Each structure stands twice: as structure tokens, then as C-alpha cells.
Amino acid sequence: MLLLYFIVLYLLHSIKAEQSDWKFYYDSGNLKEEVSYVNDYAHGITRTYYESGVLESEGQYINGLEDGLWKYYYESGLVNVEANFRNGHRVGLWRVYYQSGILQSEGIFEGAEIHFKEYHPSKVLSSEGFMFKNQDLEIGSCKYFYESGIIMSEGSFENGLEHGYWKMYYPSGYLESEIIWDHGNIMISRNYTDNMIYNMCTIEQSSMLQTQF
Question: Who contacts 186 (Cβ-Cβ below 8 Å, separation ≥6)?
Fold first, then answer.
């Protein structure tokens, strides 16, 4: 038992000896990063700073992997990104903000699935969609919106390229075109007249003719 006791003490002492806190600096001498290591892996709260001294990011490492809530900041001090990790993987809610502080985009990570929304600076929804990532394959669908809130386009994609059936719309809301894509290449395209604009022109022309006569 006594031998076991000394072995435990030795192990605890060894582990403690391998814990270290580090600080890194810019050439100017200003603090750049604070990070702790255990057994050569980043472990614990880590902070990085702009050369101006403003906090740039803060979060936690566990055995070298990001874990929990991480925050990234603009140099103005406002939040740029709020990100959640588990064992180095993106999980849960992520949010990105404009420099004004207004929400720019948000996504929910659930394993290989991502559901996302993006917003105009006016806070109006600019896009929303779904993505599935599996090794080298990335597929999904998305809808884009004008700042008026009217749908601009909708369709599916694969590995970052348009793929499959897409619809495009005029700002009036009328269908502009239907397109069949093959990994970013247009295979079939059909275009339509903007009925709203056509009707408006007809009404204006009729009014002018009535005025002249």
C-alpha cells in the first residue's frame, strides 16, 4: 500500500509539472495570446488579442480540441462570431454578426446536417437552407430573398455548385426562369416575361393614349 501511495504521488507530481501557462507577444511587445498546456496539448481557457490590446477571441480547449462556447470579436469590441464546439467539432447554434452588431447569419449544426439562415443588414431574411456533409459530398437546398422579402431564387446544390432544378424570380414575385443545372453548368433553361412589369407598362401606355385623345 505504501508503494502504491508513492506511485500515485509521483504521477500527480509529473502531471502537475507538465501543466504550463504561456503568453505570446507581438513584436511591439503587446500581448497576443494567453494559453495553457497540459501534456503538450492546449487545455483550458485561451484568449487572443489584437495588437491594440482589444480582445480578439476567447474559448476553451480540452486536450487540444475546442470545446464549449467560443467568441470572436471585431476590433471595435463587438461580437463577430459565437460558436459552439464539442471535441473540436461544430455543434449547436452558431451566429455571425455584422460590424454594426446586427445578426448576419445563424446555423444549427446537428452531426452532418446544417440548417442556416442569413439576413440583410436591414434584418430581413436573405437566405435559408439545409446542407448535408458526408466526407467529400456536400448536398443541400437553399432559398434566396430580395430585401423586400420576395423570393429571388430557390434550388439545390452539390459541393458548392448549382445542381438540379432551380427557379429564379423577378422582384415582382413572378417567375423569371427555370433552369436545370449539372454541377454548375446550365443544361436546360426556360425564361419568362415579368407579367407584373408587362401589365404596368400596358396600363401606363393606355393612360397616355387616353390623355392624348
Answer: 179, 180
Q: Is 157 exposed, middle or buried (0-12, 13-18, 19+ CB in 10 A)?
A: buried
Q: Are residues 118 and 146 in the same domain?
A: yes
Query: How is residue 29 annotated by DSSP?
Result: S
Cα radius of gyration (the chain): 27
Number of Cα atoms under 13 Å in the Cβ half of residue 160: 1
Say how many domains are in the chain.
Answer: 2
pTM exceeding 0.85: no
pLDDT tens, position by position, 147-185: 999 999 999 999 999 999 999 999 999 999 999 999 999
Last residue of a domain, one of 110, 133, 155: 110
Find the domain containing 187 and state its range: 112-213
Q: Are 140 and 131 in contact (CB under 8 A)?
A: yes
| b/e map 169-199, b = 16+ CB within 10 Å | bbebebebeebbbeeeeeeeeeeeebeeeee
Q: Using alpha carbons, select from 171, 192, 168, 170 the residue that is nearest to residue 181.
A: 168
